[in-house]
């Protein structure tokens, strides 16, 4: 069952991005794609193709997880399990606001093998229907980078907000 509408409600902004500027381990929405037979398909609404880009191979193949095929809670659970160790709440919030999600995860090689293994290990890869996809970069006709609403992003990560210390009393 496609969950595109659940993700679409979380999106603050979509920005068209040149295919040469795609960054692995970020979230994109494929707007239109030309399949091998020449059929041009547009994705929108519940059928939105929202992807987490794992890597781009030297032969220009996008390896990704089509997160819109899994409930947002499932993807964000995986993301939380794979956050870089030692990140503080405020750092995660800043990264979410800058929309540089690749900075949330531990470094990986160009083909994304560590990220791919973590996706397989934590079940989102094996989600039914299958979420793993490859797309030929040349056949992607339009793609947008997705920025989630920061508060919704943090809420789905289920991170506890830091406790604010009480104000210090002033000395008379």
List the helices and strands and how they pair.
Elements: H1 4-8, E1 11-16, E2 27-34, E3 40-42, E4 49-56, E5 61-66, H2 72-81, H3 89-98, H4 113-121, E6 132-136, E7 140-148, H5 150-157
Form type: elongated
Which structural class should the secondary elements be placed in? Answer: alpha+beta
The value of Rg in angstroms is 18 Å
What proportion strand? 25-35%
Low-confidence stretches: none
Give the CA-CA distance, first to last residue.
64 Å
User: What is the strand tally?
Assistant: 7
User: What string gives the helices and strands in order?
Assistant: HEEEEEHHHEEH
Mean pLDDT: 87
Helix content: 10-25%
> In this structure, how is the largest beta sheet organized?
7 strands, antiparallel
Q: How many domains make up the coordinates? A: 1
**Count of separate DSSP helical elements:** 5
Overview of the molecule:
With 172 residues, this protein is of the alpha+beta class. It has one domain. It is built from 5 helices and 7 strands; from the N terminus they run αβββββαααββα. Strands 1, 2, 3, 4, 5, 6 and 7 form a 7-stranded antiparallel sheet that branches. Strand 4 and strand 5 form a beta hairpin. Helix 3 crosses helix 5. The radius of gyration is 18 Å and the shape is elongated. The model has no long low-confidence stretch (mean pLDDT 87).
């Amino acid at each position: 069952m496609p969950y595109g509408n659940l993700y679409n409600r979380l999106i603050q902004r979509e920005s068209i991005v040149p295919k040469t500027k795609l960054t692995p381990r970020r979230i994109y929405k494929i707007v239109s794609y030309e399949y091998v037979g020449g059929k041009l398909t547009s994705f929108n609404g519940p059928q939105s193709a929202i992807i987490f880009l794992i890597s781009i191979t030297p032969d220009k193949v996008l390896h990704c997880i089509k997160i819109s095929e899994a409930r947002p809670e499932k993807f964000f659970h995986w993301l939380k399990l794979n956050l870089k160790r030692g990140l503080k709440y405020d750092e995660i919030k800043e990264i979410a606001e800058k929309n540089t999600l690749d900075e949330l995860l531990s470094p990986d090689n160009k083909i994304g093998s560590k990220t791919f293994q973590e996706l397989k290990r934590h079940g989102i890869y094996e989600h039914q229907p299958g979420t793993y996809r490859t797309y030929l970069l040349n056949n992607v006709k339009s793609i947008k980078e997705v920025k989630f609403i920061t508060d919704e992003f943090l809420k789905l990560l289920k991170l506890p907000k830091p406790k604010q210390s009480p104000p210090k009393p002033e000395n008379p």
